[in-house]
Specification:
single chain; mainly beta; three-stranded antiparallel β-sheet; 60% strand; elongated
């Protein structure tokens, strides 16, 4: 089994974090509902 942490750039500039699983030739991905917000974003201080 191989697990990889990946990030996807969203339209609003945030990055979504998800996991990729590879096992026996099959691939699954699980979204973690975790987001990275850029420091220069106005909403960054709120979070």
């Amino acid at each position: 089994m191989k697990i990889t942490i990946r990030m996807r750039l969203l339209k609003n500039g945030n990055r979504s974090i998800y996991l990729d699983f590879y096992e026996k030739g099959k691939r699954w991905h699980e979204y973690l509902n975790l987001f990275l917000i850029p420091e220069d974003a106005p909403e960054a201080e709120r979070y």
